[in-house]
Design a protein that fits this description.
Blueprint: H1 2-9, H2 12-15, H3 22-28, H4 34-59
Length: 60
C-alpha cells in the first residue's frame, strides 16, 4: 500500500493521462497523505505484535 501512496505523491495518474479513467483513478487514488503511510505502519506493528503473542500462546 505504501507503493500506491508513493505513486500518488508522484501523480502517476496525471503522468499517464488517466484522470478520466475512473477505474484507474479509484484503484490508484488521487491524493497523497503521509497520515495514510503512518496508519499502514501502525497497523503493521499491531499485526506483528498480535502474531508474536499468538505464537507464544499456542506454542507453550
Amino acid at each position: 500500500m505504501v507503493f500506491v501512496e508513493v505513486m500518488q505523491y508522484f501523480k502517476i495518474i496525471e503522468l499517464l493521462n488517466l484522470e478520466s479513467n475512473k477505474v484507474a483513478s479509484t484503484i490508484m487514488g488521487t491524493s497523497f497523505d503521509v497520515k495514510d503511510i503512518l496508519c499502514y505502519l501502525i497497523g503493521s506493528i499491531a499485526l506483528i505484535i498480535w502474531e508474536n503473542r499468538r505464537r507464544l500462546y499456542y506454542n507453550e
